Amino acid sequence: MGIVVLTMKASVIEMFLVLLVTGIHSNKDTTKKIKRPKFNVPQINCDVKAGKIINPEFVVKCPAGCQDPKYHVYGTDIYASYSSVCGAAIHSGVLDNSGGKIVVRKVAGQSGYKGSYSNGIQSLSLPRWRESFIVSEGKPQKDVTYPSALTYSSSKSPTAKTGEATKAYQKPSVPGTTAQPVTLMQVTGATASEASHTSLPKPSPSAVSTTSSLRSQPMGHRSWELDLWSTSSDASGQNSPRANAGEMDLWKPGSVLLDAGFVPKEELSTQSLEPVSQGDPNCKIDLSFLIDGSSGIGKRRFRIQKQFLADVAQTLDIGPAGPLMGVVQYGDNPAAQFNLRTHMNSRDLKTAIEKITQRGGLSNAGRAISYVTKNFFSKANGNRGGAPNVAVVIVDGWPTDKVEEASRFARESGINIFFITIEGATENEKQYVTEPNFSNKAVCRTNGFYSLNVQSWFSLHKTVQPLVKRVCDTDRLACSKTCLNSADIGFVIDGSSSVGTGNFRTVLQFVANLSKEFEISDTDTRIGAVQYTYEQRLEFGFDDYNTKSDILNAIKRVGYWSGGTSTGAAINYALEQLFKKSKPNKRKLMILITDGRSYDDVRIPAMVAHHKGVITYAIGVAWAAQDELEVIATHPANDHSFFVDEFDHLYKFVPKVIQSICTEFNSQPRN
Question: Where does the record place the region Disordered (predicted)?
Answer without folding.
Answer: 145-221
